[in-house]
Amino acid sequence: MQKDIFVFFAKYNQVVNQKMDEVIKTLSKEEWEKNLGGYFNSVRGLCSHLYICDFNWLKRYSHFRDFDVFKETFFAREPYSFKEILFAEKDEYLKNRPILDEKIITFINEVNEKDLNSPLKYTDSAGNLYERSFGGLVMQSLNHDTHHRGMISLCLEMLGRENDFSSFGVVL
Which of the 8 DSSP states describes residue 1? Predict the structure, then answer.
C-alpha cells in the first residue's frame, strides 16, 4: 500500500471536516439536536459517532507499535463507549474536531509502508479478537468519515443548509 494515498485521505478528511463545520456552526441548538430520523437521529449524534469512531480506532492503532502521537495526553483516556452521545453544545464539538483531525494527520505521517502492509491484531468493543491488514483498517477508518459526512450532508439539507463535501478538489 502506498502511504501517499493515506496522507491524501487524512488531509481530505481534515479539509472537508473544516468545510462541514462551517455549515454546522450556523445551526441553532434545536437544529443541532433535532431528531431527523435514522440510526444516529441528529447532526449531533452523527458528529458524536464520527468523533468516537476516529478516537477509538486511533486507540486501537496505538497497540500496533510505538507511535509518538499516542504519547500525548490527548490519548490518556480509555476509548469512548459507542453508546455515548458527546457534545451537548455544538461549540464543544467545533473546538474538539479540529484537534482530533490534527492527531489523525500526525498519526498518518508517522505510519510507514511496512506498517501498512502488516497485520494488526485487535479486540473490538464487544471483545471479539481480529487480525486484519493494518493498512486496510486505516483506510476503512478514513473512509468511514466520508460515509457519515454524506449522512450529515443529508441532515443539513433537511435543515435547509446548502452544503457540498464530496469533492476531492479541495486538496488536489
Answer: -
Contact status, residue 61 vs residue 110, Cβ threshold 8 Å: no
| Distances 126 to 12, 82, 123 between C-alpha atoms, Å | 30, 10, 8
Task: Please name the residue that has the C-alpha cell 459517532.
Answer: 49
- Model pTM score: 0.93
Which tens digits make up the pLDDT trace of 12-66? Answer: 999 999 999 999 999 999 999 999 998 899 999 999 999 999 999 999 999 999 9
Query: In order of start, what are the domains of the chain with their CATH numbers?
Result: 3-170 (1.20.120.450)
